[in-house]
Structures are given as C-alpha cells and as structure tokens.
Amino acid sequence: MENQTEIKEFKLLGLSKDPYIQDFLFVLFLIIFLVTLLGNMVIILVTRIEFTLQTPMFFFLRHLAFADICFSSVTVPKLLGNLITKKKTISWEGCISQNFFLFQTVCAEVFILSAMAYDRYVAICDPLHYTINMTKETCKQLVGLSWGMGFLYGMANALPLLNLQFCSDNTIRHYSCELPSLLALSCKENIINYIVLLISIFIFGLSSFLFTLVSYIYIISTILKINSAEGRQKVFSTCSSHLIVVGLFYITGFFRYTKPNLESLMDLDKVISIQYSILTPMLNPIIYSLKNKEIKSALVKLFGKYNPISNP
C-alpha cells in the first residue's frame, strides 16, 4: 500500500475524452465564467454606488455576489486550464486546497442566503422594528458569521484528508477534486471522513436551511393574511428571486453530497456539480436583475448614464 504522501498528483477524468468536444467545452465554460464574473461584479458595483440600494437586503446581495465569484473561481479556472492543455491533473496540495475553498465558499453562501431570509422576515413580519433590528452593524456581523462558519466547515472537511491513503488508482472520475469522488479512491478505511462530511452537512447545511425555512414559513403566513391580492403579490415579489436562488442551490447541493457515490451515477454527479458550482453563480445575478425592480431601475440608470450613444 502506497502512502498518500507519495502521490504527487491526481488524474481527472474530466467531462469528455474527445478533443473536439473538449474545445467546445472550453469555449462554453469560458463564456459562462466571464458572464459569472461580469454579472456579479455589476451587482457589486450597482449596489455599492446607487444611493437607493443602500439597504440591508442589497448589502447581503452584494456579499452574495462576491461569494458567487469566489465559489465559481474555485473550480472553473482549473477546469479551463485542463481543457486547454489537455493535461487533466491536479496536485495533492491543490486537491486539498480546492476542497477547503469549495466548502468554505458554499457554506458562506448558504448562511448569507439565510441572512437574506431573516432580512425579509423582519421587513415583512415586523416592519416597525426593521431599522432597529437590521442595523449596519448587525448586517456586518451576519456576513462575518457566514464567512466564519464557512472557514470552520472547510477546515472540518479538509483536515481529515491528510490521513487518507491511496493505492495504485489515482484517477478521479470527475472534472474537479470534489470530496465524494476523492474518498472513493482511498484504499484506507475512510468512514471517519464520511461521518465528518455528513455531520458537518447536517450541522451547517441543515441549520442554515431550517433558519431559512422557518423565516419563510412566517413570511408566507404573513403574506396570506393580507386582504388585497395586489398587496400579496407586491410583498411576495420582494422575496421571490431569493426563493428561486435558495431552491436552485439547496436542491442540487444536498443531492450531490448526500446521495450514494455509485459508478452508475457518475455522469449524473457531473451534471449536478455543473449546475450548482458553475451555472448557479452565473444565474444568481441574472435572476436578481430580472426579478427585482430596484436592481433593474438601478441598472438602467447606471448604464443609461454611461451610454455613449445617449450621452454624446
């Protein structure tokens, strides 16, 4: 049995062995990555400089956009590098680092989503105390707590990887060094890693999900008490984009990390991983831009102001 320190790198199976398909995938994922960066940077910019968007909801949205940039940057640049060079490898140190930052950013993101749910709860269910409960200091503490929880989540799952041992097979049947695919290669008993993974998912993931769920139970209960149909629609529209983002993120993420790691589901694993780690960070700013009137107005104002055609 070879010790894991003797393994310098892992081979990534990737998405396809066909060079023409790889070239197509490189262009496709490059476009997605650039749209992700551009879209989230625009959200950060417009929520930073537009006076009407200086509220807690858009403060959290700005940090969600930053988390999306970090989240996408963990795997996509390495994927693009492997596609363009045709050398599908990742070092052992890079594998551990990728897992740590993946867990850190995904955990920070779900807790930021929980903070946004709490913000909507206070705004809709207790509007008279909104300015008291959602102060600038409180918002900063919630964002700081989100990244702090992300750090703990990342460390909890990255440190046990140092005890793994591998035999002759060092081929990861995935396009990135995700933990379930990595653990499947270990020839040493890795039950502790699976236990830590499941416990941390339920502690960090389930706690943030339940917090979001409880917030929306109260929100929906309050909305249903509004007599006017127009009033109900207006209030619900303020949190509909957030619900869509939460649904996309939780459903795919929980399924990827809690389902059995079977060979027959390998292709499905890749599709799900692409959805939540590559497509979701790109879709989030699009969803918020299309569903949020304040964001749309601010974007029109911003780009209209700097439009060289309308302002010669």
Automatic annotation (TrEMBL):
It is a multi-pass membrane protein. It is found in: Cell membrane. One of its GO terms (molecular function) is G protein-coupled receptor activity. Residues 39-288 form the G-protein coupled receptors family 1 profile domain. The chain crosses the membrane at residues 24-47, 59-80, 100-121, 142-162, 191-214, 235-252, 272-290. Its main location: membrane. The keyword Membrane applies. Gene3D superfamilies: Rhodopsin 7-helix transmembrane proteins. It comes from the Eukaryota. The keyword Ribosomal protein does not apply. Pfam families: 7tm_4. Keywords: Cell membrane, G-protein coupled receptor, Membrane, Olfaction, Receptor, Sensory transduction, Transducer, Transmembrane, Transmembrane helix. GO terms for cellular component: plasma membrane. Belongs to the G-protein coupled receptor 1 family. This is Olfactory receptor. It comes from Thamnophis sirtalis.
